[in-house]
Write a structure and sequence with these properties.
transport; golgi apparatus; alpha+beta; protein transport; ARM-type_fold; membrane; four-stranded antiparallel sheet
């Protein structure tokens, strides 16, 4: 049989192929020749054939038929055969295939070989693809080689020990004595691998971490020698002595110093030295500085050292390299909560990054800018962020608008500034804002009584300029319907009033009804606004005509509104002024919680139960049934989601028996417990009178609790007692989100045993803001007439980073005061 072609010739031939099909044909032809050679047990050219097979494997062609040939090469006495055999084993074999166990004995023999290079090949292979069985069998040989005086073998043995520990963590203690001596080695290769081994052991075992903390002074000495040593051509990289070893030592110090005062104190000086002496003109120096900053931030370092670290990140923001700027912004975002004032010093540089062309840098800069907003810089920061909102790409507008809304709500210096800011967002990015922005702005405008004339005038002007931004048009329509009389009368004191007639206002609203840009929701707002103006304007006949036209609209929602409004004109005209009077003040902060004093725009105001009428949440049958058997058996009562209707105190009787007919089996509802007095209806909203709904939390003395904490979502429960019925426990949930992305479509559901009755009110929002920048609250009322221990199953659904998340949890550790 002729000698097979060499590897170099095969590569040259394959590269001449002009098409994929031609290349496949060449590979198939060569594979056939290699198979024939393997079948004939040709020992002369086995090494060459396996080498060619490995090249084909690298090109993506199947080469599994060469696995046993690799084992034959490993068993050979020739070094060249062993080298190709071990290389083939690392590429073609892994622990999922039983064939690899056949080489265990060969590796054991080669680990005890007289030639260091053969030992090195065996160590490399074991460290690359050794299974847990092989690691157990060969750990003793690896530990022996760790103690040898040969630095070439010690560095390979250290890396092999890392693999052994990952596969079989219980063998860690075997390497403990040998590991201590490795740090006294002068060879940088051995030092580097020993630091890697120490890091692995500390990360996997708290006991090892505590044991190796005594090595901190020795690591500090090694790092100091690296910094102070002169030029060494063997280790020098861009003027810095062995930066790879420096980075590894800094990472190990970060692990050893975390949550340990003594270790942190021992490394403070050397970290300051590295931070001040490292050259920053080259990327190598920046890499070391970045690791130094991470170490300073993770350990219990001094405040001056933390400021130095943040100043280094500030210098990174001025670097021309985009990767360095991105890394700096990401690191500052992580530290802004703990070192807010130090990061504030670099605010102007961070804001400049909003103008960067790189979208990743812009996004990080935007997130960090919102994290830096506080009551002192709100005006300046909002000016920059609104300018960014004007010019940014569409994918940024939604997040930026949400951030502006949250910051304005939290830190607004005045109500006028708050209203102006939100209107600016609506005019520039109205199509991108979240769904809850419209009711939030309406609530804000309603509560700012002194700003009504100014607001309706501004919105009317905005409506004349642009009707394409639907959220803006909806808010403007609502305000014109509520305060159209103020617009026509020209009572605005904050700016020069405009002269508008009733017909001009109605022309604008009618134009919205027929505009192709208007959505069905917007048309509903416009029609309702026109109807409200029938009690504020004198043009009642024109309004009647417009309303009657839409009684035959193809839009069912619009048609229903028009028919009902027509009925008001014809049958209930005497009730129309009362029904269409101005909305009362609404407080979002207490829409489903107790009355309390809240801070709004720098002014303290008492919050009351929200008077807004959100649409009731309809719970589909199949969704409610998801919670039926959560607690097991048939003793579960599902939740009813409802809203708080705004009715006079005398209407309390109409709110009774909310849950009376609720039964999972479809039969009649269980009779109320005899312990409930007959003079009081045993339902969740009983006793709804002019008295306060809830007792003060502090007076109740019921401790709060954490019901759920997973994947960045935290649910806390606070408790109150309903007044006057002590059998009702009022639980307020507080949902916060510590991740970097907001959680949307948030739904909280609950189920309790049948001996209880449960009512779940509407949430304050369906979006949980990122980075704990806001809280979603929701009230649960539980009737417990028999004073039994409270048990609850909760179901959470939300969307996070584009993925739908659903989770169930059981809550059994309620404080006794909440149910006794």
């Amino acid at each position: 049989m002729p000698a097979p072609i060499r590897l170099r010739e095969l590569i040259r031939t394959i590269r001449t192929a002009r098409t994929q099909a031609e290349e496949r044909e060449m590979i198939q032809k060569e594979c056939a020749a290699i198979r024939s050679s393997f079948r004939e047990e040709d020992n002369t050219y086995r090494c060459r054939n396996v080498a060619k097979l490995l090249y084909m494997h690298m090109l993506g062609y199947p080469a599994h038929f060469g696995q046993l040939e690799c084992l034959k090469l490993i068993a050979s006495q020739k070094f060249t055969d062993k080298r190709i055999g071990y290389l083939g084993a690392m590429l073609l074999l892994d622990e999922r295939q039983d064939v690899h166990l056949l080489m265990t004995n060969c590796i054991k023999n080669d680990l005890n070989h007289s030639t260091q290079y053969v030992q090195g090949l065996a160590l490399c292979t074991l460290g690359c693809m050794g299974s847990s069985e092989m690691c157990r069998d060969l750990a003793g040989e690896v530990e022996k080689l760790l103690k040898t005086s040969n630095s070439y073998l010690r560095k390979k043995a250290a890396l092999c020990a890392v693999h052994v520990i990952r596969k079989v963590p219980e063998l860690m203690e075997m390497f403990l004595p040998a590991t201590k001596n490795l740090l006294s080695e002068k060879n940088h290769g051995v030092l580097h691998t020993s630091v890697v081994l120490l890091t692995e052991m500390c990360e996997r075992s708290p006991d090892m971490l505590a044991h190796f903390r005594k090595l901190v002074p020795q690591l500090v000495r090694i790092l100091k020698n690296l910094i102070m040593s002169g030029y060494s051509p063997e280790h020098d990289v861009s003027g810095i002595s062995d930066p790879f070893l420096q980075v590894r030592i800094l990472r190990l110090l970060r692990i050893l110093g975390k949550n340990d005062d003594d270790s942190s104190e021992a490394m403070n000086d050397i970290l300051a030295q590295v931070a001040t002496n490292t050259e920053t003109s080259k990327n190598v120096g920046n890499a070391i500085l970045y690791e130094t900053v991470l170490t300073i931030m993770d350990i219990k370092s001094e405040s001056g050292l933390r400021v130095l670290a943040i100043n280094i990140l500030g210098r990174f923001l001025l670097n021309n390299d985009k990767n360095i700027r991105y890394v700096a912004l990401t690191s500052l975002l992580k530290t802004v909560q703990t070192d807010h004032n130090a990061v504030q010093r670099h605010r102007s540089t961070i804001v400049d990054c909003l103008k960067d062309l790189d979208v990743s840098i812009k996004r990080r800069a935007m997130e960090l800018s919102f994290a830096l907003v506080n009551g002192n810089n709100i005006r300046g920061m909002m000016k920059e962020l609104l300018y960014f909102l004007d010019s940014c790409d569409p994918e940024f507008k939604a997040d930026c608008a949400s951030g502006v809304f949250l910051a304005a709500e939290k830190y607004a210096p005045s109500k006028r500034w708050h209203i102006d800011t939100i209107m600016r967002v609506l005019t520039t990015a109205g199509s991108y804002v979240r769904d809850d922005s419209v009711p939030n702005l309406i609530q804000l405008i309603t509560n700012s009584v002194e700003m009504h004339a100014y607001t309706v005038q501004r919105l009317y002007k905005a409506l004349l300029d642009d009707i394409s931004q639907q959220p803006l048009v909806q808010v403007a329509s609502w305000c014109i319907g509520e305060y159209g009389d103020l617009l026509v009368s020209g009572q605005c004191e904050e700016e020069e009033p405009i002269q508008v007639t009733e017909d001009e206002v109605l022309d604008v609203l009618e134009g919205l009804l027929v505009s192709n840009l208007s959505t069905p929701v917007t048309r509903g707002y416009s029609l309702t606004a026109i109807m409200k103006l029938s009690t504020r304007f004198s043009s009642v006949n024109r309004i009647k005509k417009v309303v009657s036209i839409y009684g035959s609209s193809i839009d069912v929602e619009l048609q229903q509104r028009a028919v009902e409004y027509n009925a008001l004109f014809k049958k209930y005209d005497h009730m129309r002024p009362a029904l269409l009077e101005r909305m009362p003040i609404m407080e979002k902060t207490a829409s489903n919680g107790p009355t309390e004093i809240v801070q709004t725009n720098g002014e303290t105001e008492p919050s009351t139960v929200e008077a807004k009428h959100p649409p009731p949440v309809t719970q589909p049958t199949n969704q409610a049934n998801d919670l039926l058997d959560l607690l097991g058996g048939n003793d579960v009562v599902p939740v009813i989601q409802t809203t708080i209707p705004t009715k006079p105190a005398s209407a309390g009787g109409e709110l009774l028996d909310l849950l009376g007919d609720l039964s999972l089996s479809g039969g009649p509802a269980p009779a109320p417990a005899p312990s409930v007095p007959t003079s009081q209806p045993p339902f969740l909203l009983d006793g709804l009178t002019s008295q306060p709904l809830f007792n003060d939390i502090a007076a109740a003395g019921i401790p709060s609790m954490t019901a759920y904490n997973k994947n960045g979502l935290k649910i806390d429960f606070t408790f109150e007692r309903a007044n006057p019925n002590p059998n009702i426990a009022v639980i307020t949930i507080h949902a916060t989100n510590s991740t970097e992305a907001e959680m949307t479509d948030f739904v909280f559901q609950a189920a309790v045993p049948k001996t209880f009755q449960l009512q779940l009110l509407s949430p304050s929002s369906n979006v949980v803001p990122a980075l704990n920048q806001g809280t979603v609250t929701q009230v649960i009322r539980v009737l417990n007439p028999q004073k039994q221990q409270l048990r609850m199953r909760i179901k959470l659904t939300y969307t996070h980073k584009g993925s739908a998340v659903q989770d169930l949890a059981e809550v059994n550790n309620f404080p006794p005061q909440s149910w006794q």
